[in-house]
Amino acid sequence: MAIPPASASSRPPHSNGASSLLLPELPAELLLRIFSHLPFSSLASLSLTCRGLHRSVDEIGWTTWLLSRSEDNDPDPQRRIEVLSREEGNQSGLKRVREMRRCDEVWASKAVRARGFGYKELLLASSGSDAMEPINGSGGRPPRDWPAFPCAKLCAQGLIVAMRSLVVFWSSASLQDQAGICSDRKPRVYHLGEASGWQEINAVEVLEAQPDSIVLAVGRFHGVLELWRLPIGVDDGGGGKARARGMGSCEPSPGKPGSVQSISYLPEERLLAIGWKDGHVALYTLNTRCELEPLFSWKIPRNAKLWCLHLGLHYLGGEPWLAIGCQANTEPGCNPSPLIIYTDVLHWANQCAAAHREGRPRPSPAVIWPINPSRTSIYALASPRPSMSSPTFPTHTLYAGCHNGTIVALDVSQGGKFLARYRDAYDDSPVYSLSLGVGQGSRSIAAGTGRHGCLKLYEQGRDREPLSYPEQHGDVPKSPGEGGEGWTLFPPSPPPCNSPTYAVVGEHGRLFCAGREKCWEFDARGTARSGMRDEAIRCKGAAWYRHREMVLMRTCGEEGEGGEKQEEEKKDNKKKGKRWSAGGKGFWRGRRR
C-alpha cells in the first residue's frame, strides 16, 4: 500500500524526502501482515511498547499470529506458547490465544458437544394473538403448523435468529454460559410489526451493533425492506417480549415486487445490496443517522431467478464487488453459469445514477460469468471480510454453495478463476448456507446442507478435491488437496428437526445452526475453559463421520452416549480395584463373593 509523501515543511531533517508513519498509524491490513511474520516473544514485547501498539496487538495481533502459524511444521522454538514468561502470559490477548489453542485440540479429537433449542413455545405464543383468529377460522391449517424458514446472524452482542414474524436474540453473556443456547437465561423475543404465525421475514442483516441496541435490515415476504432497532441494553433476565422500533421502509422494485430473497451489507463501505426473487437488485448507502439513501437499481439479465447475493472487497480500501447466485438455466443459447460477478459495482452504480440524472444511456457494467464446473443452481455465497484477512482465507476468494452439494472456490481478482472444489462423494444434498474461518485453526468451511441437521466441515487447504482448472484458464497441475475428505457432524439423537440446515453462523470455538423447528449448537469450548470439568457440561455428544471412511463415530456426552465414556471408566477403575457390576448400575469396590 503506497503512503502519500509528506509536505516539505513536515519532513524531518535528513529525511531525503522519504515519508514516515508511526507503526500504530499503519492500516490494519498492513499490521496483519507484519504480525503474521513476528515470533511470539517479539509480538509480546511489541505490545509493551506503547498504548497504541498494545491495543493493536491485543485486538488482532495474537489471533493473526495463531492463524498464520503452521501447526505441522514450525521448527522455531521462539514461536511456541510455552516459552513465554509468566508476565507475558497474563495479557488478555494471549489468554484468548490459549483458549483458541485448546479449542483446536477439541476440534482435532472431535470431542464436540451439541445442544438444541426448540421454537415450539415461541411459535405458539406468536400465533395466539387476535390477529391470527381470522386465519385460524378459515378452515385451513393453523399458522403454528406451518414450518419456519429461519435466517441467523452472529455479531459481537449475540446471536440473532429471525423466523416468521419474530426475531429471537441470545446475548453474548448468556451464550458464554456452560449450557449455551439452552441456558436458564431465555432469549429475548421481538415482534416486528403485527404478530403473525406465517412466514414473513425472508432475510435479515445486521447494519449496526452497539452495546444498547442493534439495527437490522429486514426483508419481508411481500417485497418490502424495513429497518428496525432492537433495544438490548436492559437485561431483564431474558424470556421477555421486547418492543422493537421501526426506522422506515422502502419498496424500490417497480410494480408488484417479488419477495426479498437476500440482503448483504459491506460495513467498510457502508453499502447495502438487496435482491428480490424476480431478479431485481438495488444498492443503498447507509448514512451516519442509519438512514438508507438509494443509489441504483437494476434487473439481472436473462430473467434469471435470484437465490442469493454477496458484497465483498478485493482488499481494504479497494473497490467493492457484488456476486449473485441464480437458478441454473439449461435452455439453448443461455450462459450455463448461474453465477454473476459485478466488479467495481459501486463505481458503476454511481455512473448509472449520474447518467440517469443527465438523460444519458446507462453504461454497461463490468460483469464476470465464471465457469462453474457444477453448472447447477447456487444457493449460498460467502467471502472473507478484510477484518479476518489471513493467508488461509484471502479477501478476494469467493465460495459458492451449489445445488448438487459441492462448494466452489473462485478468485474474483483474476476474473473468476476456478481455484478448488469441496464435496462429499456420498451425499449430494444442496448447500444452503456457508460460514468461513471456523473449526480447527479457524481454517475450515462450515456448510449447512439439505440433509436433516447435518453440518459439513472442510479444511480450506487439506480437504479440497484434486482436479484441474477449466480449459479457458489453461491446463495447470492438479491442486495439492488430499481428495476432498472433510467430515460431517450430526446433532445428538433424536435429530433436532426434520428440515435442512438453512442457516449456519459461528466462530472459532462454536457453531450455531438453524432449521425449521429448532436452533442447535456445536460447542468445542467444553474442555477449553480453565477450571471447567468436562463432566460439568450439561449436553450431549455429537455424532460424526469422515467422508472417505463412512464410519459413524460418536463423542461421549455427560451421560456417556456411544459407550465410550463407560469404556474409559472401566479401564480406570480396574486399575483402582473396582469392578463393573453385571446389572449395569455402576462400579463396586471389593472382592467378588
Strand residues, percent: 25-35%
From the N-terminal CA to the C-terminal CA, the straight-line distance is 81 Å
Query: How helical, in percent, are the residues?
Result: 10-25%
Instruction: Report the average pLDDT across residues.
Output: 72
SS field, number of helical segments = 10
Helices and strands: which structural class?
A: alpha+beta
Cα shape: globular
Largest beta sheet: strand ordering: 23-24-25-26-31-32
What can you tell me about this protein's structure?
With 593 residues, the chain is α+β, with helices and mostly antiparallel strands. The chain has a domain at 23-107. 16% of the residues lie in helices and 31% in strands. The strands form eight sheets. Strands 23-24-25-26-31-32 form a six-stranded antiparallel beta sheet, with no helix packed on it. The chain has a five-stranded antiparallel beta sheet with strand order 27-28-29-1-30. The protein has a five-stranded mixed beta sheet with strand order 2-3-4-5-9. α2 packs antiparallel against α3 and α3 runs parallel beside α5 (92-109). It starts with 27 loop residues before the first helix and ends with a strand. Mean pLDDT is 72; it is low at 1-15, 70-87, 128-139, 468-482, 527-538, 556-567 and 578-593.
